[in-house]
Amino acid sequence: MNKQVLVSIIALSFAPSAFAQDKPKPFTMEGELGFISTTGNTETTSINAGITAHQELEMWSNDYLIEGLYKEETVEGEDGEDVEFTSAQKFFASAQGNYKLDNPDNRLFGFASYEDDRLSNFNYQATLALGWNQKVLQNEKHTLEYSIGPGYSFVETQAGEEQDSVIVRASTAYTWLISDTSKFTQTLSTEVGSENTKSRAESALTAVITGNLSMRLSFKMDHNSDVAANRDNLDTETAVSLVYNFF
């Protein structure tokens, strides 16, 4: 990671007004885009993009996520000719609706997700889950909530083998408003099934550059407990991206 980029993000994090709000907005949406190109002995092109949205209604609190990653590399083969290949091609989408009970911090949730990672062990992974969601912390600086409940996963490996199973899904989401222009977020989820345990985690530091434009440093981890012998259990992604706040 370029040290100058990291120092710039940290400096922006403590600069003196964009994340602080008197009250939550009914709908927020932000788009993220990162691009890296390298040349030399190895030529690479890497693009990551995503859209995150949150909807706060009288009886519902809803979250939506769409993200993708594409990476292409060019290397010199044994015969001296350039060889191009795709080293990453991933799409993930999820939605969670939280129905508020008499105490609005207590909710019932429904969750759905779909993942297509063509270079992983799986052709696709999809999840449906229902259960309990609770906001356990909310003040001017910090928010923390968790969800837990049963569900079902629909999975097909690259070999065409179906591994559908009943699961238990648990997740947490934490936000720390470091200053008026910076925030730290941490999400973690795990889906425990008889065939496989799938876990995802993301740590991100976001700092406002100007107006609705921010810079984000993020680190993501995807882990599957049961993969083929020639596949890694853990995939990681470190990215510096620009983020635009639409609403």
TrEMBL record:
Domain of life of the source: Bacteria
- Would the keyword Signal be found if you checked this record's keyword annotation? yes
* Annotated Pfam families: DUF481 (PF04338)
Record keywords, A-Z: Signal
Task: Tell me the first and last residues of the signal peptide.
Answer: 1-20
InterPro entries registered for this protein in UniProt = DUF481
Protein name as catalogued:
DUF481 domain-containing protein
Q: Which organism is it from?
A: Alteromonas hispanica
